[in-house]
Each structure stands twice: as structure tokens, then as C-alpha cells.
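Regression test case RT-17, inverse folding.

Input:
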């Protein structure tokens, strides 16, 4: 008589969503990022005032936690009487637009170069490695300053400049990832079935390295937001009167001694957004790690 099978059933494998949102680091970052994204998308309806409207009779009104505050302007007003809360809300749009479109631009360039270098190797790899090394010798902030100074500061120029300068990390990571999997059995099987090179790259290779791509994209988005803030602070990024957090920090410099909150509020907004994106990147890395997929 065969004894009954009393072995325990195999544990169910957690899906990506369960692993990601079960990670408190990712969850906290996603909540904060989601709130900022919501604020940016619905800025025209959330902001209590026009962010460009000036009121010279209400200049440098203190925020709610300081004496002399006016609850009509919870975060106070700047040196031109513009409502600071409204400018912070609309400034989130600028930061997210630059972060997202810079990552799209640099991600396409870097991923394409990395995949081609890793898959074909040989002379293709040598040429792309030369381009990567050339890019790495260029200081990003100095090149961006020079280009923006020549062509002028605007949202489109900043996105294009940063997108053309931040592709190297995508290329390096994608090249390494493709070199690790290009000789796997499923790649060889696809080749033997007569897959064309574009079909093989987009259907077999890219889906299997998407985890690395997602993680790099989050960190590069944070990097792009910081660079935009730096350029705007130096007066060569988004130009006034557009509400940009970096530009708001620059405009608040002259009030540093007496109204330091004009710098602290947009500075804190930049820190919170970058921290949330980095926490999401850390959580994605942990959720997509092979050892955490069971």
C-alpha cells in the first residue's frame, strides 16, 4: 500500500507587484512620488492662485509657522508677491517633465547603444566603448552650462542637453546585461528559428533586461532633476517667470538672511522628490532581484 503524500505544497511565488509594494522602502517612495505627480498633473485646479500673478503689496509674507503669517498664503509669498504654494505646485510640473523626458531621451540612446555593443561585440563594441569613454571624459554640468549659455535656457533645450549627456549609464549597464545573456539557450533557440535581429533584440533580449533598465531609469530621473535645479539656480536653466524649484532657490538668495524660508521650501521640495525617486529605485532593485522572486 502506497503511503499518502503528506509533503507540504510548494509556496506560491509572489508576483512583482506584491514584492514591490511589500517593500516598505518602495511603498513609501511610491506614495510620496504619487502625491507629487498628482499635484503636478492637477496643478491648475489645486493651486490657489496664478503662480505668475504679482502683488507688490504682499511681498515676502511669512509662511504659516512664522509670525506675521497670512493664511491666505500658507507658504507665504516671494519678493514679487507671488503665492509660494502655487509656485511650488506648478514647479513640480517642471521637475517631473524634465526628469521624465530626459530619461526617455537618454534611455533610448543608451539602451540602443548598449544592446548593440553587447550583442554584436567586435568592432561594434569597440566603437561604442570609445563613445562611452569619450562621454565619460566630459563633465556633465560644464558641458550643459556651455550649451545652454549658447542656445539659451528653455525647457526644450534643457531636456535635449541632459538627454544627450546622461545616456552613458544606460549604455554601460545594458551592454553588460546583454553580454551575460546573449549566449543563453533561449537566445540560441530564437536564432535557430530564424528570428531577424530586430525581432530577437526586442522580443527576446530587451524583456529579459528590463529590470535593470527600470532601476537605472529611476536613478537617472533623480539625477536629471538635480541637474535642472543646478542649471536654473545658475540662471541657465528654465527662465523666469516660469516656476522652477531651482530658479526659486536662486531668486531667494537675496533674502537669505531675513527670509531664509524662500530657499528652504523649494530646496526641501527638491530633496523630497529626489529621495522618493531614489527609494523607488532601491525598491525596484530589490523586487526585481532574482533571489527575491520566490
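Golden output:
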Amino acid at each position: 500500500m502506497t503511503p499518502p503524500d503528506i509533503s507540504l505544497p510548494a509556496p506560491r511565488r509572489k508576483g512583482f507587484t506584491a514584492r514591490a509594494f511589500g517593500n516598505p522602502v518602495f511603498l513609501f517612495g511610491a506614495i510620496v512620488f504619487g502625491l507629487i505627480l498628482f499635484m503636478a498633473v492637477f496643478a491648475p485646479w489645486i493651486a490657489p492662485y496664478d503662480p505668475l500673478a504679482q502683488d507688490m503689496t504682499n511681498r515676502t509674507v511669512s509662511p504659516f509657522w512664522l509670525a506675521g503669517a497670512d493664511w491666505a498664503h500658507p507658504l507665504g509669498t516671494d519678493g514679487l508677491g507671488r503665492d509660494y504654494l502655487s509656485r511650488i505646485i506648478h514647479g513640480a510640473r517642471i521637475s517631473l517633465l524634465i526628469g521624465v523626458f530626459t530619461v526617455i531621451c537618454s534611455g533610448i540612446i543608451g539602451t540602443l547603444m548598449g544592446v548593440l555593443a553587447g550583442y554584436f561585440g567586435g568592432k561594434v563594441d569597440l566603437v561604442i566603448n570609445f563613445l562611452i569613454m569619450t562621454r565619460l571624459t566630459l563633465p556633465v554640468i560644464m558641458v550643459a552650462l556651455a550649451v545652454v549659455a549658447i542656445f539659451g535656457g528653455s525647457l526644450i533645450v534643457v531636456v535635449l542637453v541632459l538627454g544627450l549627456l546622461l545616456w552613458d549609464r544606460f549604455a554601460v549597464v545594458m551592454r553588460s546585461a546583454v553580454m551575460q545573456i546573449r549566449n543563453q539557450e533561449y537566445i540560441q533557440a530564437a536564432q535557430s528559428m530564424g528570428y531577424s535581429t530586430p525581432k530577437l533584440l526586442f522580443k527576446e533580449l530587451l524583456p529579459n533586461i528590463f529590470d535593470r533598465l527600470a532601476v537605472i531609469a529611476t536613478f537617472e530621473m533623480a539625477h536629471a532633476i538635480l541637474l535642472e535645479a543646478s542649471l536654473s539656480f545658475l540662471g541657465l536653466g528654465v527662465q523666469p517667470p516660469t516656476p522652477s524649484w531651482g530658479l526659486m532657490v536662486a531668486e531667494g538668495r537675496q533674502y537669505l538672511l531675513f527670509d531664509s524660508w524662500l530657499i528652504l521650501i523649494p530646496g526641501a521640495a527638491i530633496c523630497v522628490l529626489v529621495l522618493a525617486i531614489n527609494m523607488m529605485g532601491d525598491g525596484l532593485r530589490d523586487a526585481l532581484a532574482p533571489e527575491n522572486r520566490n
